[in-house]
Amino acid sequence: MKVFIVIPAYNEAGKIRRVLLKLKKNSYKNIIVVDDGSKDCTAKIAEESGAYVLKHVINRGQGAALKTGIDYALEKKADIIVTFDADDQFMVKEIKDIICPVAKGEVDIALGSRFLGKAVNIPFLKKMVLKLGIFVVFLLYGINITDSQGGFRAMSRKASQRINLTADRMEHAAEFFSEIMRNKLKYREVPITVRYDTYALKKGQNWSDSFGLGMKMLFNKYMR
Question: What is the reported pLDDT for 110?
Answer without folding.
Answer: 98
